[in-house]
């Protein structure tokens, strides 16, 4: 197994988008799955108010809301881990997994808000819509 880490097809930087526009870099879920089977760890953008240490933010008049932390899901053949970009906190997610659409709207049009049941824990995650099928397939495979 290699320890290569690369961004998934839906997790794109500005340079990824420009390369794709010129036909230089075309990534797909199928290529992601093939690379995953070959031992590459895939990195999927994932923000969440419930993964890791939950920080509460004051919104005035004594009310607080959970801070949505930005990070990445690292998907590999043997583990699913969430990494907080700011605090460098790592959370290993344990199965069985169940992923379902959330009742709330995602903050951006190209993002999907999902409810993730990982073992006996419940989480809310926001990931790129292009990566939903990849994450679903990886979590289903992890349960086997």
Secondary structure elements and pairings:
Elements: E1 5-7, H1 14-21, H2 29-37, E2 41-48, E3 56-60, E4 63-66, E5 69-75, E6 80-84, E7 90-93, E8 97-101, E9 111-118, E10 121-128, H3 132-143
Parallel strand pairs: 1-2
Antiparallel strand pairs: 2-5, 3-4, 5-6, 6-7, 8-9, 9-10
Structure summarized in a few sentences:
With 144 residues, this protein is α+β, with helices and mostly antiparallel strands. It has helices spanning 14-21, 29-37, 132-143; strands spanning 5-7, 41-48, 56-60, 63-66, 69-75, 80-84, 90-93, 97-101, 111-118, 121-128. A hairpin with a 5-residue loop joins β6 and β7 (90-93).
Folded structure, characterized:
With 144 residues, the chain is α+β, with helices and mostly antiparallel strands. It has 3 helices and 10 strands, in the order βααβββββββββα. The chain has helices at 14-21, 29-37, 132-143, and strands at residues 5-7, 41-48, 56-60, 63-66, 69-75, 80-84, 90-93, 97-101, 111-118, 121-128. The strands form 3 sheets. It has a 5-stranded mixed sheet. Strands 8-9-10 form a 3-stranded antiparallel sheet, covered by helices on one side. It has a two-stranded antiparallel sheet with strand order 3-4. A hairpin with a 4-residue loop joins strand 5 (69-75) and strand 6. The longest helix is centred in the last third of the chain and has 12 residues, at 132-143. The two termini are 20 Å apart.
